[in-house]
Design a protein that fits this description.
The protein is an alpha/beta fold. Helix 4 packs across helix 18 (420-430), helix 9 packs antiparallel against helix 11 and helix 15 (352-372) packs parallel to helix 16. The chain starts with a helix and ends with a strand.
């Protein structure tokens, strides 16, 4: 019987993180803050001293629209990093940290899989170094300060009907989406409708991942708009005078975390906004650090390229100056057949017509990356034992017609050597002469109004006919435009399972309408969140959550974690 991911991880031989940092990255012990033997934070002052070093090449791993069949994007990111080291390149992996919500929900662990994992897997998937707890504490300090200010006289004149700041918890809990706070009499404050988001949807998480220093972090936290007064004037965190304390809570967390792969290659994990409800990238600080420490950096964007890669480029790259040198699009034959209409229980049966239909999803992602963003790319097919040569041949033929190489990767079973072909193609794409490389483009210009930015994404990226919104939402978009936020990028919160806002529409639907349900200002992160369809910023647990399988054995080891 094959080993589970956690069993593979627990049998791995890990190097002390201080030794790995010194030997592989040249980082002395004094520049690390160890959290046990196998994880550490890298000192921010040390990272600032690397400012004049040249950057390595940045490789962005993205994917087709995700399916219940799985695509293995994080596994590919880890496997490709190992593969680049396997072929003699100095590569560093830069990943997001997992949220406890999906770990205990339906996704399970989020540190890769098979023989392409980052370790210590249990620590990474659970509390890790406490970054998410710090982000939750900072977020909830601000929430507490709002209600406390109102309780003690409300000198700022906050309109309790227009408080937009929510509390957060790092768990899927649908019962907390909408609550009534302040019950129990005058001593407990004023009763009002409130709610919780998951930590990864907090603007504090977004700010944490876009900030470039502690000073930048504090300034951004101070600009968070939490409410309005009765005459519709914004109330900011700085007005409540808690942004300094929030920065203190985040001070240690802002230093990126260093761990390793199963093959003892360096990996930096830091931050973790979801791509379906936030901008879906690890921190700017972590990516920039990896680029100074390695010749190649492999990072990932969340979910499919319509959400993750779009936000990586239109938000993270726009704000930071980062530019990927190439992209890797992850797909599986199984997932493409699912997009072609095959039921989950029939995905292991050869079905060329269904694969042919499902390839429309991959083709649109390829065209978006190449034609909208100008990124050279390669398609990496995660190999499954039920795949047939006829299916792989069809895939190579269809995508090859677009001028994009299609390579099969076996890193899940073989580790880095199983993705060596993909690694060599990535090196080829990254090393093209500069005069043959098109500069990375954004999907829309800063000067475009907010409504038109959203409409541009719907048409260009999602294949939609247009967008719609209730009158009050359209009016809110216009108010933000008139208030001076029109130059901000938009961060779309929508289902990850489809180009549309209907999760059941597989493949590459066209001509649909994207319905805008809600708009949220993230003034500290400097983007406007467009909530579409029925997407929730506080997920719920499934009927059979992964938590039911997670336990400790007689030796005190974690079991059932993927």
């Amino acid at each position: 019987m094959p080993l589970s991911d956690i069993e593979i991880a627990q049998r791995a031989t890990l190097r002390r993180i201080t030794d790995l940092a010194r030997d592989r990255l040249g980082i002395a012990d004094a520049q690390l803050v160890p959290y046990g033997h196998h994880k550490a934070k890298i000192d921010l002052g040390y990272l600032a001293s690397l400012r004049d070093r040249p950057d390595g090449k940045l490789v962005l791993v993205t994917a087709i629209s995700p399916t219940p069949a799985g695509e293995g994007k994080t596994t590919t990111t880890v496997g490709l990093g190992d593969a680049l080291n396997h072929i003699g390149k100095k590569a560093v992996i830069a990943l997001r940290e997992p949220s406890l919500g999906p770990v205990f929900g339906m996704k399970g662990g989020a540190a890769g899989g098979g023989y392409a994992q980052v370790v210590p897997m249990e620590d990474i998937n659970l509390h890790f170094t406490g970054d998410f707890a710090a982000i939750a504490s900072a977020n909830n300090l601000l929430a507490a300060a709002i209600d406390n200010h109102i309780h003690h006289g409300n000198a700022l004149g906050i309109d309790t009907r227009r408080i937009t700041w929510k509390r957060v918890i790092d768990m899927n809990d649908r019962a907390l989406r909408s609550i009534t706070a302040g019950l129990g009499g005058p001593g407990n404050g004023f009763p009002r409708q409130d709610g919780f988001d998951i930590v990864v949807a907090s603007e504090v998480m977004a700010i944490f991942c876009l900030a470039t220093s502690l000073a930048d972090l504090k300034a951004r936290l101070g600009r968070i708009v939490v409410a309005e007064t009765r005459d519709r004037q914004p109330v900011r965190a700085a007005d409540l005078k808690v942004h300094g304390a929030m920065t203190v809570l985040l001070k240690d967390a802002l230093a990126p975390n260093l761990v390793q792969t199963l093959e003892n290659n360096p990996a930096i994990l830091h931050g973790g906004p979801f791509a379906n409800i936030a901008h879906g990238c690890n921190s700017v600080i972590a990516t920039q650090a990896a680029l100074k420490l390695g010749d190649y950096v492999v990072t990932e964007a969340g979910f499919g390229a319509d959400l993750g890669a779009e936000k990586f480029i239109d938000i993270k790259c726009r704000k930071s100056g980062l530019r990927p040198d190439c992209a890797v699009i992850v797909a599986t034959v199984r997932a493409l057949k699912y997009h072609g209409g095959v039921d989950l229980n029939a995905l292991n049966i050869e079905d060329l017509p269904a694969l042919d239909r499902g390839l429309a999803n991959l083709e649109r992602h390829v065209r978006n990356l190449r034609e909208v963003f100008g990124l050279p790319c390669v398609v990496s097919i995660n190999h499954f034992v039920a795949d047939t040569e006829a299916e792989h041949a069809l895939l190579r033929q269809r995508i090859g017609a677009l001028g994009v190489p299609v390579l099969t990767a076996r890193h899940w079973a073989e580790g880095g050597r199983g993705a060596a072909d993909v690694a060599r193609e990535v090196v080829r794409l990254c090393e093209q002469p500069r005069d043959q490389i098109t500069p990375v483009r954004f999907a829309y210009d800063d000067a475009l109004p907010l409504w038109e930015k959203m409409e541009t994404l719907a048409r260009k990226i999602y294949g939609a006919a247009g967008i719609s919104a209730p009158a009050e939402v359209k009016a809110q978009v216009q108010r933000l435009q008139d208030a001076g936020y029109g130059h901000y990028p938009v961060c779309v919160a929508k289902t990850q399972y489809s180009f549309s806002t209907d999760a059941a529409l597989r493949g590459a639907p066209s001509g649909h309408t994207v319905n805008l349900r809600e708009v949220r200002l993230s003034a500290g992160a400097e983007f406007v969140v467009m909530v579409c369809g029925d997407i929730m910023t506080m997920p719920g647990l499934p009927r059979l959550p992964s938590a039911e399988q997670i336990d400790l054995d007689e030796q005190g080891r974690v079991v059932g974690l993927f």
